Amino acid sequence: MAFTNEQIERYSRHIILKEVGAKGQKKLLNASVLIIGAGGLGAPAAMYLAAAGVGTIGIADADEVDLSNLQRQIIHATKDVGKAKVLSAKETIEEMNPDVTVNTYRTFVTSENIMDLIKDYDFIIDGTDNFPAKFLINDACVMAKKPFSHAGIIRFQGQLMTYVPGEGPCYRCVFKNPPPKDAVPTCKQAGVIGAMGGVIGSLQAMEAVKYILGVGQLLTGYLLTYDALKMEFRKVKLPTKTDDCEVCGANPTITELIDYEQAECDGVGL
User: Fold this and answer.
1) Is 263 a domain residue?
2) 191-195 long-range contacts, Cβ below 8 Å, gap at least 24?
């Protein structure tokens, strides 16, 4: 694969990096990332992956753009209110970078369709806003041996971790099971500062890029937390993968995917 003159100019700041170079940029162009949720986290993640030249980006989301989304979901604009989020995101990405193929899935992600959705992608980004979806994504990725980035935001706080098959604990190793319904306030109740999505979603994109390039240290075995009011990041070492984990342990008891009861717009597992 030879670069066009336009691609050489577009990706010039990547190509001069010794950690990327022409070889790494070709890896990005040949890679595929699925983003589940085109909201506060998925929006900036999608835009930075598209700008980086990730060749195929899938976006799964069943919702339409609402005016209240625009405070943080920067891939959408006022003119997009009422439009399917996947369509709005696709249009923005295609205007940004014609090198990128965008696959859209206007659907709720469930136990019945998630394996088909993730099967053809190199890396998965969890941009969802509720615990049932996060546990479903984790369990499906563990079963399908797919790496993924988990993240969550609420108020002025955020967190993320990365799962790579065989290299560290999964989300369920850390958080076990979804909390009881109504035990954690929703973002409608608690609020979220818009820029939190940009900070944490961009870090998810960075994890995907590092995984594709095979450079640096991923957040495998670590939980990175961010407190915007204190302007503090903390990198917390997680317990090693546990043999008794219900999904990734030596003798898993969860062998089929579970659709937990949905609670709209849950916060993160802080």
Assistant:
1) no
2) 191/154, 191/155, 192/40, 192/72, 192/153, 192/154, 192/155, 193/155, 193/156, 193/228, 194/40, 194/71, 194/72, 195/72, 195/228
Backbone angles phi, psi at 32, to 5 degrees: -135, 135
Instruction: Report the pLDDT averaged over residues 212-225.
Output: 97
- pLDDT 10s digits, 109-132: 999 999 999 999 999 999 998 999
Nearest to 203 by CA among 269, 164, 158, 167: 158
Q: Which two tokens stand for residue 209?
A: 């890029």
Residue with tokens 């797919």: 146
Domain ranges, residue 44 = 11-237
CATH code for position 92: 3.40.50.720
| pLDDT the model gives residue 244 | 82
Q: Please, are residues 124 and 93 in contact by the beta-carbon 8 Å criterion? A: no
Whether 137 and 36 have beta carbons less than 8 Å apart is answered as yes
Task: Flag whether the pTM goes above 0.90.
Answer: yes
DSSP string, 130-177: SHHHHHHHHHHHHHHT--EEEEEEEBTEEEEEEE-TTSS--HHHHH-S
**270 located within any domain:** no
Q: Is residue 117 part of a domain?
A: yes
